[in-house]
Specification:
single chain; 324 residues; alpha+beta; Chemotaxis protein chec; Surface presentation of antigens (SPOA); 2 domains; 6-stranded antiparallel β-sheet; 4-stranded antiparallel β-sheet; flagellum; FliN-like_C
């Protein structure tokens, strides 16, 4: 092949490439970096729904904890976030109080995480103190303190059930666990959803987190979406009145009492003004809220400011009043 022929071929190839670039259908390829960490993120709609329902939870939980502790406090919804479980485990502060809560009907778990600096003021208030103590105290909890915080976790679970409106399922609080075993509750590469709250109590500010593995989150979102069609019915939707509203519309006798307590006759005869009658009932055993003698709820004595009150716990077993 001659040199002239080679130059001619090169010019033909160059002209062909220029003609292809001028074709209207020839679009340049766009290449973008892919972030696989963004896969599986919440949609904006689901994020808004979760935010709204947990803002309501924060208000109700603040009221319930205020009555339970007998001290003023503030609970604020702080943030909604998602990140891989391994990243979350590495970010948990040492000695944090971590308790899993399992669903009664589905093999899934929600994790409650509380800043250790909030734990000690709560325990001090429940033990009759003023919530004070060493600032930023960090140590392991005693067995009694573990039992007290288990009761607080139960209170959180009950308020979460009320906020989520999940009557067919209940949260069962389990014993405290270490952060190192959190990976047992979801796959190592799975993302968890964090709902963060800020709590201020007795001059101490700390964080409380609800951690949702993917299975639990899907159940919760499905429950929220089941509630949404009812809210769109406008005038035809009548919200269920609260327990207080229903009581105000009815006339019946309500009592908070300890049932089946036996007292010796000699103890009754010796009673005088100012004397103390020992009922020999464990303090941790709840009483009952009765309506015309029928048990309705478990109840424990509390105070609301300067007034005596009863805090309701679990609903009693089905009785005759429930069908009326």
């Amino acid at each position: 092949m001659s040199m002239f022929d080679q130059e001619q071929i090169d010019s033909m190839l160059k002209a062909s490439r220029q003609a292809d670039s001028r074709k209207p259908g020839g679009k340049p390829r766009s290449v973008y970096p892919c972030n696989f960490r963004s896969a599986g993120r919440l949609s904006n709609e689901n994020a808004r729904a979760l935010t709204a329902i947990h803002e309501t939870f924060a208000r109700h939980f603040a009221s319930a904890l205020d009555v339970y502790l007998g001290s003023g406090l503030e609970v604020k919804f702080q943030a909604l976030d998602q990140l891989p479980i391994k990243d979350h485990i590495s970010s948990i502060p040492p000695l944090s109080y971590i308790a899993p809560c399992s669903l009664s009907t589905v093999p899934s778990t929600m994790i409650v995480e509380c800043d250790i600096h909030l734990v000690f003021p709560i325990i001090d208030l429940l033990m009759g103190g003023n919530g004070g103590g060493p600032v930023n105290e960090t140590r392991e909890l005693s067995e009694i303190e573990e039992e007290i915080m288990h009761d607080v976790t139960t209170l959180i679970a009950r308020q979460a059930e009320n906020a989520w409106r999940m009557p067919s399922m209940s949260l069962v609080p389990n014993r405290r666990i270490k952060a190192s075993v959190l990976h047992q509750y979801c796959p190592p590469n799975e993302k968890v959803t964090l709902v963060k709250f800020e709590i201020e109590i007795a001059g101490v500010t700390g964080s409380l987190q609800l951690v949702f593995p993917t299975l639990f989150l899907n159940i919760l979102i499905k429950q929220i979406k089941m509630e949404q069609p009812q809210k769109k019915r406008g005038a035809r939707f009548f919200p269920t009145p609260s327990l207080r509203d229903r009581i105000l519309d009815c006339d019946f006798e309500v009592a908070a009492e300890l049932l089946n307590i036996k007292v010796a006759v000699k103890d009754l005869i010796s009673l005088q003004p100012g004397s103390v009658l020992k009922l020999r009932a464990p303090v941790r055993s709840p009483g009952k809220l009765t309506v015309k003698g029928e048990e309705v709820f478990e109840a424990v004595p509390v105070r609301n400011g300067t007034q005596k009150a009863a805090q309701l716990g679990r609903r009693a077993q089905r009785s005759s009043w429930e069908g009326e």
